[in-house]
TrEMBL record:
Pfam families given in the database record: DALR_1, tRNA_synt_2f
Organism for this UniProt entry: Rhodobium gokarnense
Gene responsible for this protein: glyS
UniProt-recorded name of the protein: Glycine--tRNA ligase beta subunit
Sequence ranges assigned to domain DALR anticodon binding in this UniProt record: 563-662
Superkingdom of this protein's organism: Bacteria
Chief subcellular location: cytoplasm
InterPro entries found in the cross-reference section: DALR_anticod-bd, Gly-tRNA-synth_bsu, Gly-tRNA-synth_heterodimer
Length: 676
């Protein structure tokens, strides 16, 4: 079957948009083909700074004829119902529909619709034009006098369709005065001439000759390999930066790696400052000395040119810019060191944190109090925690963080160390933002833990108080991340730290904990079952209880007890609904006439007592083991005893015994929230 090949050639597409754009192009076109009745065998998208390309293999030459039967309303139905049926079926009047009789439902209309297939070239022409006009760029605008919105000016459309053994046809498409063809163009500077294209294979070969590497992953591999080789040649190593590697591969079509240098005096600054400055301003990689692990005064740049002088001028130009940028950074570094962090705290009063929650200065005061209180609970030094909280945001008004906001916290640590602050305080200043994502480390030093918890809990309680909670996919203040951060800090440091939050916020933590545990393979219904109990705000104990509950329910005793519990509860609910009564209170021992019910009552008393002792000792496995002893007497009870006895007093007593099963299991979890 034929292949479809499409290229959209434009001015430079921002690197951050290229991969997503390639996937969007693939999805829009392939979904459109399938919807039109043209299934395909495979598809692959490509993106470079100047082009999006798509190859779709095995596309039928024509969509199939379609016969469809659509049932309509009854004969004599209201006009609105008839009009809706005709509109949906594409009929002009009911005379075009058939009347079908049904012995039970009477006569009703049926539309028999026949849609002839269409040529694939016709479908593709419409689909490509529609895709271009509706393409979901994050940012786009109109260029020139046309009406088309595109990320950068679109210059040409290449669209061919045909079998591998034949010369493909050019599918006629025109968008905003840009006609389709079978021509693309090579590298902007090295080989800018036109290239005639038939299909993917000759397209890639021709582009390679014209100094364009089409595949983004291959450009990444070239950059990575050449950079590593260049660094090793001078005894250094490239500092890994996958995000920068992705970006660099999206800035060039023909990657050429060059090595430059900068003045050694700049190495007196923190490595992160040098790396950030060089990465942000020039998109260059820094190099380190493998013997010391410290940065070297060399960098790797990725050019889009094979220069006649071997890249000397390009390297010199980058060195000049980097020298200027590092001079600025050094000025910021030296200036900030002269200002004690404590002197910056007063400036935070002029920075609004949130209009309803006050300034950063007011927030810092809250953090001081909260961090000290948390420190007492987790065995940290309250005075150091309060000091760290006071200085935690002070670097926000520094020159360096103003220039590089991503260095907040880290620069505060460096300034604190240089100004003689306690090591625990300096560490807490850096770590209190952590974790900022699932792959980020959590604070492990007690003072840092206290400040990090204070920072996140203040965020959550504050925004909850002003009713600025996450809704749907919207979470402008990253409160989900803050809650997950609290959870990870508590669990990974095994902290006994009751949250003491209001019920709604505690439910929010429960939801975040479900996400966390589900990723680790736990069942979310077990989280519900434990959180349904009163005062379950000690997350470490909640998780341990959930783990023990999961292990218990995976056993035969646990599964059978759960089945017995559900049977008991179903009987209770039915009787409670029928009578309007609840069967609470202890059963009358004098009405326990059968051995099976006597045995069950005795087993419940023992299990309840043993489970309570185990829970008090925080031995949840033992609590589950205590409940496991109920399995046999519960099974025997249901085998031997008729719960709904004719004698009302006997029946009520037995229902109370069933309620005892429900009450006993509440020692460890709310079994009603556990799925079968």
């Amino acid at each position: 079957m034929p292949d479809l090949f499409l290229e959209l050639f434009s001015e430079e597409i921002p690197a951050r948009m290229q991969r997503r754009a390639g996937e969007d192009l693939k999805k829009l076109v392939t979904d459109g083909l399938v919807d039109a009745g043209l299934p395909y065998e495979g598809a692959k998208a490509f993106a470079t700074p100047r082009r999006l390309a798509l190859h779709v293999a095995g596309v039928p030459v024509r969509s199939p004829d379609v016969k469809e039967e659509r049932k309509g309303p009854r004969v004599g139905a209201p006009e609105k119902a008839l009009a809706g049926f005709l509109r949906a079926a594409g009929l002009d009047s009911v005379d075009q529909a058939e009347i079908v009789s049904d012995p039970k439902k009477g006569d009703f209309y049926v539309a028999r619709i026949e849609k002839p297939g269409r040529e694939a070239t016709e479908i593709v022409a419409e689909l490509v034009a529609d895709t271009i006009r509706k393409f979901p760029w994050p940012k786009s605008m109109r260029w020139g006098e046309g009406s088309l919105r595109w990320v950068r000016p679109l210059h040409s459309i290449l669209c061919t369709f045909g079998a591998e053994t034949e010369d493909p046809d050019v599918i006629a498409v025109e968008v905003d005065g840009i006609p389709s063809g079978d021509v693309t163009y090579g590298h902007r500077f090295l080989a800018p001439g036109p290239i005639r294209v038939k299909r993917l294979d000759d397209y890639m070969t021709s582009l390679e000759k014209a100094k364009v590497v089409l595949d983004a992953d291959r450009r990444k591999d070239i950059i990575r390999t050449d950079a590593d080789n260049a660094a090793h040649a001078i005894g250094l190593e490239v500092v890994t930066d996958e995000k920068l590697l992705d970006e660099a591969s999206g800035l060039v079509e023909w990657p050429v790696v060059l090595v430059g240098s900068f003045d050694e005096r700049f190495l007196d600054m923190p490595d992160e400052v040098i790396r950030t400055s060089i990465r942000e301003h020039q998109k260059c990689f820094v190099l380190s000395d493998p013997k010391t692990g410290k940065l070297a005064n060399r960098f790797v740049l990725v050019s889009n040119l094979e220069a006649s002088d071997g890249g000397l001028a390009i390297t010199a130009g980058n060195e000049k810019v980097i020298r200027a940028r590092l001079s600025d950074a050094d000025f910021f570094w030296q200036s900030d060191l002269k200002t004690p962090l404590a002197d910056n705290v007063a400036k935070l009063d002029d920075i609004v944190f949130h209009e309803k929650l006050g300034s950063q200065g007011e927030r810092v005061k809250r953090l001081e109090t909260l961090a000290a209180a948390i420190a007492e609970k987790i065995g940290a030094d309250p005075a150091k925690a309060a000091r760290a909280a006071k200085l935690a945001k002070a670097d926000l008004v520094s020159h360096m963080v103003f220039e590089f906001p991503e260095l907040q916290g880290l620069m505060g640590k460096y300034y604190a160390e240089a100004q003689g602050e306690d090591a625990a305080v300096a560490t807490a200043i850096e770590d209190h933002y952590k974790p900022q994502g699932p792959s980020d480390d959590v604070p492990s030093e007690p003072v840092a833990i206290a400040v990090a918890l204070a920072d996140k809990l203040d965020m959550l309680t504050g925004f909850w108080a002003i009713d600025e909670k996450p809704t749907g996919s919207k979470d402008p203040f990253a409160l989900r991340r803050a809650a997950l951060g609290v959870i990870r800090i508590i669990l990974e440091n095994e902290l006994r730290f009751p949250l003491a939050a209001d019920p709604d916020l505690l439910n929010f933590f429960a939801d975040r904990l479900k996400v966390q545990l589900r990723e680790e393979g736990a069942r979310h219904d077990l989280v519900d079952a434990v959180f349904a109990l009163d005062d379950q705000d000690d997350l470490l104990m909640v998780v341990r209880r959930i783990e023990a509950l999961g292990t218990f329910l995976d056993s035969d005793d646990g599964a059978n007890l759960l089945a017995g519990y559900k049977r008991a509860v179903n009987i209770l609910r039915a009787e409670e609904k029928k009578s309007g009564e609840t069967y609470s209170g202890r059963p009358d021992p004098n009405l326990l006439t059968e051995q099976a019910e006597k045995d069950l009552a005795g087993a419940i008393d023992i299990a309840r007592t043993d489970a309570a002792k185990a829970i008090d000792a925080e031995d949840f496995a033992a609590a589950m083991a205590a409940l496991a002893t109920l399995r046999a007497p519960v099974d025997t009870f249901f085998d031997d005893i008729l719960v709904n006895a004719d004698d009302p007093a006997l029946r009520e007593n037995r229902l109370k015994l069933l309620n005892e099963i429900r009450e006993a299991t509440l020692a460890v979890a709310d079994f009603s929230r556990i799925g079968s």
